[in-house]
Design a protein that fits this description.
Elements lengths: L1 H31 L1 E7 L2 E7 L4 H7 L9 E2 L11 E6 L2 E7 L2 E7 L4 H7 L9 E3 L11 E5 L1 E12 L3 E10 L3 E5 L4 E12 L2 E14 L4 E8 L1 E4 L2 E16 L3 H4 L21 E4 L9 E6 L7 E7 L8 E5 L3 H7 L2 E8 L1
Parallel strand pairs: 1-4, 5-8, 10-14, 16-20, 17-19
Antiparallel strand pairs: 1-2, 3-4, 5-6, 7-8, 9-12, 11-14, 12-13, 15-16, 16-21, 17-20, 18-19, 18-21
Length: about 350
C-alpha cells in the first residue's frame, strides 16, 4: 500500500512538471507571434506570423511580388509586432506624346507620381492631361504636351500712302507728281508656340519701324474752263501736243487736182480751215477741239478732228491751212489741244 502511494505521488509530480513545461512552451510560442497588417493596393488584411523577416511573412501568406511592385520595407527587414507592410502592384497606362503612344506600368495612380516613376521630366511650359495632381485609373491615357516657344524676326514692307490733291489751276485730265512714293520697312518679332511640334499660337511681341513710308503725292487738275479771246470755253480734257500744218498741195497730201480723194479728209468731208488731222487712238475722229498757241501767237482756235496722216502718231496734230505760205509760217510748234464737251 505504501509503495502504491509513493508511485502515485511521483506520477502526479511528473504530470505537474509536464503541464508546467507545456504552459511555458506555449507562452514562449505565443510571445514570439506578431500581429502584422499587409496592405495590397489599399486593401488591408491582418495576420499573425512567427516569421523572422518580411520575406518570411509574405511566404507564409502566399503573397508573391510581381516584377516592378512597390513594397515599403526590404524583404530582409526584421518583423516587428504591429508592423504595416504596404505593397503596390504595377498598373497599366498609355503614355502619349502627340501621336506617339507607349504602353507603360507604374505602381502609382497620381499623374505626377506616375511620370516621376517613369522618369519623364517636364519642361517649364509642358503640361499633361489629366493634370499632374489628378488621380487616374489603370488603363487610361496620360497625354504629355511638350511646349516649345520660339521668337522669329522678319522684315515687312510698309505700303506708302497715295495722296491726290485737286488743283484748279491745272487742266482737267492733267496729273502732276509732286512727290514720288516710297514704301517703308518694319522689323517684326513674332512669338510662336508649338505643342508636340504643332504650331498652336503666334503673337506679335514687337514691331520696330526701320524706315518710314513716304507718301506718293499727285495733283490732279480740275480746271475745265478756258478763258480765251473768244470767250470762256468749257472742256473735259487738255493735251499738250506737237503741231504741224498742211494744205492741199502735193507736198502735204501726195495728191494732185484730179486725183481720187483730192481735198477729201479721212472722214469723207472736204478739207478746209478748222479741220485737223489726228491719231484716232488718241483723239477719235469727229471730236470737237480748241487749239491754243503756247508761244504767244494767235490760237488756231475751234476745229474738228476729221483727218488722219501717215506721220501723225501719238500726241501729234496737223492743222489745215489754205495756202502753202501759211503752212511754212506755222512750221512746227507746241500747242495745247482742248477736247471740248
Amino acid at each position: 500500500m505504501e509503495n502504491f502511494t509513493v508511485t502515485k505521488a511521483k506520477h502526479i509530480k511528473m504530470l505537474t512538471v509536464l503541464a508546467i513545461t507545456a504552459t511555458l512552451s506555449l507562452g514562449v510560442y505565443m510571445h514570439t507571434a506578431k500581429d502584422i497588417t499587409i496592405s495590397i493596393d489599399g486593401e488591408e488584411r491582418n495576420i499573425v506570423t512567427h516569421g523572422d523577416t518580411v520575406g518570411d511573412v509574405l511566404k507564409e501568406a502566399n503573397i508573391e511580388l510581381k516584377e516592378g511592385a512597390y513594397i515599403n520595407l526590404p524583404l530582409d527587414a526584421k518583423v516587428e509586432n504591429n508592423m504595416n507592410i504596404i505593397i503596390k502592384t504595377p498598373k497599366p497606362y498609355i503614355l502619349a506624346f502627340g501621336d506617339k503612344k507607349h504602353e507603360v506600368e507604374s505602381v502609382h495612380t497620381k499623374v505626377r507620381d506616375i511620370l516621376e516613376d517613369l522618369k519623364v521630366e517636364l519642361g517649364e511650359k509642358d503640361y499633361t492631361y489629366p493634370a499632374l495632381d489628378e488621380v487616374t485609373t489603370p488603363g487610361s491615357e496620360i497625354l504629355v504636351v511638350r511646349v516649345n516657344e520660339v521668337v522669329e524676326e522678319h522684315e515687312e514692307a510698309i505700303p506708302h500712302e497715295n495722296i491726290v490733291r485737286k488743283n484748279d489751276r491745272l487742266d482737267i485730265g492733267t496729273e502732276n507728281t509732286i512727290q514720288e512714293g516710297q514704301d517703308g520697312l518694319k522689323r517684326i518679332k513674332v512669338k510662336k508656340v508649338f505643342e508636340n511640334g504643332q504650331l498652336t499660337a503666334k503673337e506679335i511681341i514687337e514691331e520696330e519701324i526701320v524706315k518710314e513710308a513716304v507718301p506718293h503725292i499727285v495733283e490732279k487738275g480740275t480746271k475745265s474752263i478756258l478763258a480765251s479771246s473768244r470767250g470762256n470755253i468749257r472742256y473735259k480734257k487738255a493735251i499738250t501736243m506737237v503741231a504741224t500744218a498742211y494744205d492741199l498741195s502735193y507736198e502735204s497730201t501726195g495728191k494732185r487736182p484730179g486725183d481720187k480723194y483730192y481735198g477729201i479728209t479721212a472722214s469723207g468731208t472736204k478739207a478746209r480751215p478748222g479741220v485737223v488731222a489726228v491719231d484716232p487712238r488718241v483723239i477719235p475722229l469727229g471730236t470737237k477741239l480748241y487749239v491754243e498757241s503756247l508761244d504767244g501767237t494767235p490760237d488756231y482756235g475751234f476745229c474738228v478732228a476729221e483727218d488722219t496722216g501717215g506721220a501723225i502718231k501719238g500726241n501729234r496734230i496737223d492743222l489745215f491751212f489754205n495756202t502753202a505760205k501759211e503752212v511754212r509760217q506755222f512750221g512746227r510748234r507746241k500747242v495745247k489741244v482742248y477736247i471740248l464737251e
